[in-house]
């Protein structure tokens, strides 16, 4: 009976937004009320976070709100996850800050638009599943590195330091500047910081259901305004926020500009894809649902393009806000759409009030975000796991902190791949066994004679067994074993039942050895090769009638005995 092949999903199956799926299943007024409550809850969390992330990224706070509104709307309406909340993310802070510092805000807009196009292409090419192959030490390394960068970036506002101009985005250049500015510490700013941190951490401990971030922002704003504390606020540094969203477009677009911004665009697309799919996986784990990764990437791409056209920041799925959405009882993507609507209402009717928010309070919010983002337990566990994992982790972490995110991810992935190949190459085993003479059994016995290669009998037949993935990293090891063969037997049996994968280098190694056996007059039998391995062998001519192919090593031994008896080998 031929094997049953799984039905391949259609384009509609892969790219239908979850919003459409939820509405098809039936959506009533009770669902709408539940999603409205969840959307309002998420908006309360997203409001201070979006502004804080924008300020830390070197942009104005309204850019964060614009990003949350557009990202939240499009990702929830078109995405492949029921519960994903889109918007600006803390993970983007160092990347956005460096892009703005080098290329200006207009450069960030173009890079974000290009990243959106890349994400759409990755989704349509159905490459979303491959993002999950990024090694875990790399993910922990660059996430912890980003947390360090975010915290260092908040030191200025946490302490109220008086810096002339914009501080450099690189950590190595930032630290001396902050150290030199320590004499300008503002005691009132430190007071606001401590009050804000106390409220956030205290509410998290004793009233975890309350919106700690928003309460801290409101309390800090009211206290600073009523007491007339001399601390920097959103209004004193950035002026009044606009009361709407204005079209920005793509400024100064040219081929040279596109080439110049290609690397930042790739970094934004890569980080956005990783972050959004990680967030979708977290939501799946909390709800038991399954997201459509490629549909999600297409939605992320469209959201980034739209955010860029309105002058916003890069958009991605946000893990903390998505988890908040799930805990608030969201039924589907309508909650994310409503969260964007609530944020737009705040921007339109209460944007002027945002001018009173102390920057020290927003810095305290991001300091807590950085602490939560740093995967401390996972970091130390990986440091103790193995030397290879520790090297990959530290490379991704240190390069992210002291060079940039692109270097951290790129070098980490390369080192992780090399470590994987080294481990796989070491895992392959080449066992040299001789054929057997099975013990005598009664004629009435129904026991099938088993092939036990531990017992030697016939020097005319030599049996080798390969176990493990046979790829280019293991080809040298296997080839060296074959090269050490002394006198060639009349029949050589290669048991490949334990080989799950064979690449072209491994197949070429076997073809070279087969040619050597042919010159010596030795017959080669390959046993137990699975269909994919047999196909790879066939591409290099290792198929019948040149060699014999059998399903098991037992049938190979029967064929070998028959050939010896007939004098054909």
TrEMBL record:
Domain STAS: 451-560
Subcellular location(s) per record: Membrane
Membrane-related topology note: Multi-pass membrane protein
Principal localisation: membrane
GO cellular component: membrane
Superkingdom of origin organism: Bacteria
Gene Ontology terms describing biological process: transmembrane transport
Residue ranges of the TM segments: 37-58, 64-80, 108-127, 134-155, 175-201, 213-231, 261-285, 340-371, 391-420, 462-482
Keyword S-adenosyl-L-methionine: no
Classification via Pfam families: STAS (PF01740), Sulfate_transp (PF00916)
SUPFAM superfamilies in alphabetical order: SpoIIaa-like (SSF52091)
Keyword vocabulary terms for this entry: Membrane, Transmembrane, Transmembrane helix
Keyword set includes Disulfide bond: no
Name assigned to this protein: SulP family inorganic anion transporter
